[in-house]
Backbone:
């Protein structure tokens, strides 16, 4: 029989977002929403296995209500089996394993926690397959967890042999100190398994979707850090046919992407120019943290508050800082608003000639307030 797998990892449920204090709840809840949506997608696609290759949780001590949210979601999976591997954030260990014991107790019978380095037969679940887990047992390690497979006998009477691991992949993952369970492509290929489902790296592999070695990294289904990831949240739907040929479809997941951007303005730029930059439909799911600097004409400067309202209608969530934007106050503006030789005119003219835009801006605003 053929085998159909939904592959995800690195949900980091329970992650906090201190850099985004006004949006913490939105970002926190989005990750649980994404898990529910992925289960629903897996059900629609008639998937057999739902695989999470590590870092389901952000840490070893999620709150009880967070565990319940997760078990409620995965208990809705209509396929045959859910496989969850402990990653380096939610690692398993002999002296600290209450998380996975508690999790198993709250889940249905169609769940296996892959916390042991041993071959797991899926025969009792209706699959002609063996699984080879490589769980994490600490936050960091300069050795991966796949070495035990070298000494294991591959049963040729079993059709499918599936490796599931968490860690960096040489040549693709950023792991400069080699302390995130580093793996090499040739090492994984040498172990004789039909497919590898990896977690840890938040970008999907293969990035070009060209299958060359049957190694897959799902990528994070929801952005995890305050940086712009070059892709939306991603996951894989992978099929192995009776001849063990692999077909993989990358799917988009997630509620938000996070974009931090800074734009330096000048008097030739209008607020319409800024709006047009973010007018594409793709920005509707963006958390945009935008910092504006530089100078606008006085007319355009007055439109900044209106710009904020319009951007909020375009992007998913907006954090806009234009405190460093100054008005272009020219000699003509000074001459037309103040009488020559009087103090305001003299001060503003001096600051304008000294090319001190911030000092000129402050003086201009104080004098305007005094006039009013």
Residues:
């Amino acid at each position: 029989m053929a085998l159909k797998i939904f592959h995800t990892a690195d949900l980091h449920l329970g992650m906090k977002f201190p850099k985004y204090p006004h949006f913490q709840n939105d970002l926190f809840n989005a990750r649980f929403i994404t898990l529910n949506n992925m289960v629903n997608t897996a059900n629609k696609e008639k998937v057999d296995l739902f695989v999470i290759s590590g870092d389901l949780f952000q840490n070893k001590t999620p709150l009880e209500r967070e565990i319940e949210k997760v078990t409620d979601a995965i208990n809705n999976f209509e396929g045959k089996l859910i496989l969850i591997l402990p990653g380096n954030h939610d690692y398993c260990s002999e002296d600290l394993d209450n998380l996975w014991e508690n999790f198993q107790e709250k889940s249905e019978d169609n769940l296996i926690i892959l916390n042991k380095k041993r071959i797991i037969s899926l025969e009792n679940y209706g699959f002609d397959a063996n699984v080879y887990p490589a769980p994490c047992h600490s936050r960091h390690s300069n050795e991966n967890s796949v070495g035990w497979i070298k000494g294991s006998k591959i049963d040729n009477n079993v059709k499918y042999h599936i490796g599931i691991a968490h860690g960096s992949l040489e040549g693709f993952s950023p792991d400069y100190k080699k302390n995130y369970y580093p793996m090499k492509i040739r090492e994984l290929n040498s172990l004789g398994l039909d497919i590898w489902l990896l977690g840890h790296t938040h970008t999907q592999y293969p990035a070009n979707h060209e299958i060359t070695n049957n190694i897959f990294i799902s990528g994070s289904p929801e952005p995890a850090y305050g940086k712009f990831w070059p892709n939306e949240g991603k996951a894989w739907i992978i099929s192995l046919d009776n001849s063990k040929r692999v077909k993989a479809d990358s799917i988009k997941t997630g509620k938000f992407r996070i974009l931090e951007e800074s734009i330096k303005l000048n008097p030739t730029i209008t607020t319409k120019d800024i709006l047009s930059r973010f007018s594409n439909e793709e920005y509707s799911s963006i958390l945009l943290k935008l910092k504006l600097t530089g100078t606008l004409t006085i007319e355009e400067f007055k439109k900044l508050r209106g710009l904020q309202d319009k951007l909020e209608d375009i992007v998913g969530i907006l954090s806009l800082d234009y405190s460093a934007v100054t008005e272009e106050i020219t000699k003509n503006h000074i001459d037309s608003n103040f009488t020559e030789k009087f103090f305001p005119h003299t001060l503003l003219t001096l600051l304008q000639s000294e090319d001190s835009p911030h000092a000129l801006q402050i003086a201009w605003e104080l004098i305007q307030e005094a006039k009013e």
Remarks:
- DSSP finds ten helices and 14 strands in the chain.
- Residues 257-371 form one domain.
- The chain has two domains: 3-253, 257-371.
- Confidence is low (pLDDT under 50) at residues 226-230.
